[in-house]
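Example for tutorial group B:
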C-alpha cells in the first residue's frame, strides 16, 4: 500500500511523482513502455559515420519534442536544476517558402501567424492572408485564458471546424493554405487537419499557447530527451517499466467529490495489483481509454477519451557533416505545400559541428507517407528537403524516423486535439477527478497545452490536488 499510484512516466507523471515525494507521500510509478519519457525521447546518431560529439561520445537528436520558450518557466527551472544547457534555435539567415511553383526566401521562423514577413508573393495573396489573420486574432483575443468551454460563444464556435472558418474568411489558395499549415504545425493542434479540429480548439490554443511568445526560441545541448531519465533517477523500486495498466478499481470510493474521501484505489496490471490511497493517470485521454475503470467513468469523460484523437505526426531527423545550408545564407527553416514535408527546421547543436534538419510529415500526408516502403519514405523526405535547400540535402550521413502513431503506448504526437463539439460536451472532464483518480498530461493543461510546459504544470497541479486530498 502506497499513498499514490502514478500511471505513466512521461514528463507529467515524473513531475507529479517528484512533487508527491516533496510533499512526503509514498508512491508507485507504473509505465507501460520499456523506458521513461513518453513523447520526450532522444536517440544517438550513427557514430560509425563520424556523427559524434567533440568529446567522442554520441551526438543526440530528439525524436519527440525539442523546443522551449522564454515563458516556459517551469521547464526552464527543471533544465537548470539538472544542469542541462540551452542554446538559441539556429534561425539566422533566410528561411524558405515553397508554394505552388514559387520558391522564395524571407526573414523569420514563420511558425504560426507572423506579421510583417511578406515573402515574394503576389500582394493579393499576402493581403488576403493578413486580412483573415486580423479577424482570427480578434477571435482569439475574445477567449479566456483557461479552458474555453464556458465562454458565452463556446457552443457556436465549437460547432464549426477550423476549415469552416478558413472557407468563410479566405479567398486565395495561399491564404487558405497559410491557415491550414498553422493547424498542422503547432503543438496544441495535434497536428490535425483543419476539417477535423474544432474552431474553438484552434482559437483557444492560440490564446493559451501563443506563437507570439516564441515557444521555439531555444534547444537543449544533448537533446531534451535527457530530462526524463534524470527525473526518474531517484525513484528506484518505486518505478515499474514495461507494465501496462489494464484496470483501475475503486472498491468504496464515492464519486460525487474527490474530497469526500473513502476507499483505496487498486491499479491492476498483468503482473500485479497495486493499492494506493489515490491515483494520478498521467497520459493522453486517448491512451487512458485503454484502461477499464470501476466504477465506470461518466459519459463526458468516456466521450473525451473516445473523441480526443492523437496527432498524426512522424518526425524525421536528417544529419550531415556540417550545416551546409548556412553557406548559402539559409536558416535551415523551410515551409511550404510540398508533397510530404510542410515544415522543417535547423536543429543543429553548435557544440557538435554537425548539421541536423528536423522534418515533420503530418496529417493526411503522414497517412500516405507511412504506407510507403522504407526507401520510398526516405527518398520522399530528402526530395522535399532538396527542394527547400538544394541538392546537397540528398546525401545525408544519417536518417532517423519516428512514426509516433505507431508507438503502442503513446499513439501519436504532438498532442491530442478536440474535434467539433467535444469541448462543449466534455471540457469539464479534462480536470474533474473520478473519485480518487486524478488526471495529468499536457492535453489537460490550461496554459501551454501540447508543450513541455503544459505537461509540467499538469503534473504539478495533479500532485497538489492529491496532496490536499490526503492531508
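The residue assignment follows.
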Amino acid at each position: 500500500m502506497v499513498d499514490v499510484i502514478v500511471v505513466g512516466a512521461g514528463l507529467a507523471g515524473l513531475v507529479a511523482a517528484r512533487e508527491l515525494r516533496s510533499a512526503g507521500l509514498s508512491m508507485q510509478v507504473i509505465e507501460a513502455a520499456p523506458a521513461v519519457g513518453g513523447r520526450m525521447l532522444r536517440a544517438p546518431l550513427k557514430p560509425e559515420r563520424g556523427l559524434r560529439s567533440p568529446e567522442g561520445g554520441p551526438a543526440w537528436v530528439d525524436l519527440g519534442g525539442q523546443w522551449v520558450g522564454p515563458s516556459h518557466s517551469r521547464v526552464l527551472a527543471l533544465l537548470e536544476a539538472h544542469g542541462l544547457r540551452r542554446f538559441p534555435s539556429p534561425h539566422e539567415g533566410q528561411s524558405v517558402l515553397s508554394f505552388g511553383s514559387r520558391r522564395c526566401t524571407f526573414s523569420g521562423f514563420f511558425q504560426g501567424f507572423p506579421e510583417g514577413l511578406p515573402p515574394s508573393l503576389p500582394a493579393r495573396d499576402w493581403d488576403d492572408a493578413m486580412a483573415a489573420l486580423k479577424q482570427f486574432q480578434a477571435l482569439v483575443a475574445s477567449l479566456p485564458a483557461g479552458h474555453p468551454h464556458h465562454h458565452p460563444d463556446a457552443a457556436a464556435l465549437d460547432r464549426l471546424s477550423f476549415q469552416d472558418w478558413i472557407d468563410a474568411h479566405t479567398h486565395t489558395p495561399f491564404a487558405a493554405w497559410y491557415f491550414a499549415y498553422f493547424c498542422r504545425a503547432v503543438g496544441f493542434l495535434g497536428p490535425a487537419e483543419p476539417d477535423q479540429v474544432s474552431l474553438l480548439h484552434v482559437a483557444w490554443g492560440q490564446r493559451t499557447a501563443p506563437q507570439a511568445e516564441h515557444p521555439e526560441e531555444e534547444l537543449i545541448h544533448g537533446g531534451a530527451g535527457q530530462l526524463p531519465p534524470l527525473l526518474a533517477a531517484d525513484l528506484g523500486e518505486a518505478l515499474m517499466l514495461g507494465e501496462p495498466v489494464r484496470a483501475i478499481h475503486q472498491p468504496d470510493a464515492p464519486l460525487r467529490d474527490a474530497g469526500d474521501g473513502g476507499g483505496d484505489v487498486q491499479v491492476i496490471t498483468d503482473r500485479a495489483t497495486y493499492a494506493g490511497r489515490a491515483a494520478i493517470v498521467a497520459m493522453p485521454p486517448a491512451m487512458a481509454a485503454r484502461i477499464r475503470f470501476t466504477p465506470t467513468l461518466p459519459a463526458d469523460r468516456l466521450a473525451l477519451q473516445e473523441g480526443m484523437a492523437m496527432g498524426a505526426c512522424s518526425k524525421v531527423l536528417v544529419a550531415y557533416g556540417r550545416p551546409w545550408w548556412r553557406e548559402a545564407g539559409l536558416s535551415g527553416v523551410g515551409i511550404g505545400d510540398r508533397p510530404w514535408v510542410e515544415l522543417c527546421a535547423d536543429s543543429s547543436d553548435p557544440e557538435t559541428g554537425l548539421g541536423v534538419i528536423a522534418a515533420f510529415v503530418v496529417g493526411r500526408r503522414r497517412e500516405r507517407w507511412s504506407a510507403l516502403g522504407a526507401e520510398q519514405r526516405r527518398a520522399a523526405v530528402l526530395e522535399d528537403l532538396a527542394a527547400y535547400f538544394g541538392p546537397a540535402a540528398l546525401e545525408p550521413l544519417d536518417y532517423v524516423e519516428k512514426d509516433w502513431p505507431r508507438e503502442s503506448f503513446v499513439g501519436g504526437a504532438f498532442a491530442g486535439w478536440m474535434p467539433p463539439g467535444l469541448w462543449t460536451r466534455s471540457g469539464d472532464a479534462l480536470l474533474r477527478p473520478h473519485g480518487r483518480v486524478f488526471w495529468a498530461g499536457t492535453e489537460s493543461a490550461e496554459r501551454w497545452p501540447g508543450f513541455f510546459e503544459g505537461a509540467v504544470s499538469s503534473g504539478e497541479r495533479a500532485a497538489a490536488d492529491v496532496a490536499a486530498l490526503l492531508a
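The chain has three domains: 2-34+241-297+434-470, 42-91+216-223+311-406, 124-208. Compare this with the pattern of hydrophobic and polar residues in the output above.
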